[in-house]
Design brief:
By secondary structure, the protein is of the alpha/beta class. The chain has a single domain, classed as NAD(P)-binding Rossmann-like Domain (Rossmann fold). Helices cover about 50% and strands about 15% of the residues.
């Protein structure tokens, strides 16, 4: 199961996991339903559940239902939004919306699905974090808060669920060419500044993150747990 798979990193993860043989479900808004239809047209085994993950209670209901009715062995918590405004004027409504999508709905799905994995003795959970799980950023206080939080959640769940065959990890993408970074890439000066600081000398592609997700879901990562895998072209090493 991949959340927010209508575009960008989520869509790339859904495609890669389906190509690797997983029966994949995308959870998200109408774009997720459209993306699943496109992937099915490519011959991939992908379906969709329409759910606005800004509605935490709706996310909880989906998680509870799937835990009771389906066998979900792999979960990619990808859905996320970013809101940019200085901290002193940061809109409290946007603060709550970012926390609802990036953190509360992540937990609303992870708790019931993870509990079912624990009961079966196997599971793989990957949450998309960020470079701002390590840094503070500027004008993104709600986003950075959530991305720090999901790393802490991941470590705790790994401690509790590892004895039951469940791995829980994060991926921290760097600057990836997605909708979330379109404002930065549209600013010619800022885009050049960012790219010049990336040792790989390019923005990442969603497929770069999807490859990392496939690794963490696969047998080669069976002993990787509670880890945040950075996929940033070398940004943090600079």
């Amino acid at each position: 199961m991949v959340t927010g798979g209508g575009s960008g990193i989520g869509l790339a993860c859904a495609r890669r996991l389906a190509e690797d043989g997983a029966r994949t479900t995308i959870i998200g808004r109408t774009s997720a339903v459209d993306a699943a239809a496109s992937l099915r047209a490519e011959g991939l085994n992908v379906d969709a559940i329409e759910c606005d993950l800004a509605d935490v209670e709706a996310a909880r209901q989906v998680g509870d239902r799937l835990a009771a009715e389906e066998r979900i062995d792999m979960l990619v918590n990808n859905a996320g939004i970013i809101y940019r405004e200085p901290a002193e004027t940061h809109d409290p409504r946007e603060w709550e919306r970012v926390l609802d999508i990036n953190l509360r709905s992540v937990w609303a799905l992870t708790q019931p699905l993870g509990a079912a994995m624990v009961g079966r003795g196997f599971g793989r959970i990957v949450t998309i974090a960020s470079l701002l799980s390590f840094q503070g950023g500027i004008n993104v206080v709600s986003y950075a808060t959530t991305k720090h939080a999901v790393v802490g959640m991941t470590k705790t769940l790994a401690n509790e669920w590892a004895p039951h065959g469940v791995t829980v990890n994060c991926i921290a993408p760097g600057y990836i060419a997605t909708n979330n970074t379109s404002a930065l890439r549209d600013d010619e000066a800022r885009e050049a500044e960012i790219r010049s600081r990336i040792p790989a000398a390019r923005w990442g592609e969603p497929e770069d993150v999807a490859g990392a997700a496939a690794f963490l879901m696969g047998p080669d990562a069976a002993y990787v747990n509670g880890h945040t895998l950075v996929v940033d072209g070398g940004w943090l090493a600079r």
